Each structure stands twice: as structure tokens, then as C-alpha cells.
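[Q] Does anyone have a clean C-alpha cell version of this?
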Amino acid sequence: MTHVSHSVDAADSRSLWSLSVDERAYVAFVADHDGDNICQRLADMGFLAGRSVTCLVTPGFGAPRVYAVGGSTYSIDKRTAQLIRVVNERPA
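[A] Here you go.
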């Protein structure tokens, strides 16, 4: 796995999947798998560094969770959400 360029240390971030309902955080960076375009797809959806993201629904049983980012709402599975790293304060 490789990481896109970012200014936040991975140790200072946590996965999007860790957010609780109504908890807001800021996208720090998206980790990308070699040969996979998921990083670009997530950027196109609005998961960009510094963007506010809020968890809306955590249905349980490993089902996809619902997040709001950039005025849109998305259902994201655990594998994908774990690639999105967030922090509690907006990155510089």
C-alpha cells in the first residue's frame, strides 16, 4: 500500500470507519493500494484533505456506513472507509 502526499502523520490520524454517529472529523489523506484508482474516485466524491466529514448512520453487522461530505451523502463499506484517514482538527 502506498500513501498519497500528505502533511499529517499516519499515527496522528484514524480511519473514517472509527467515527461515531453525528461525529465530525476532517479528511487528512486517503491511503491508496498500488494499481487501484480508489484514491482518485474518493477525491472525485469530495474526500479531499481538509474537508469536513460527518458520520450519519452506523447500521451494524459490518454493513456500509453513511457519511456526509461536501454537501453529498455516501454509503461506504468498511474496506474503503479504512483507507480514508481523518483527524479531529482541520489539517493545515
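[Q] Thanks! Anything notable?
[A] Residues 2-87 form a domain with the SH3 type barrels. fold (CATH 2.30.30.90).
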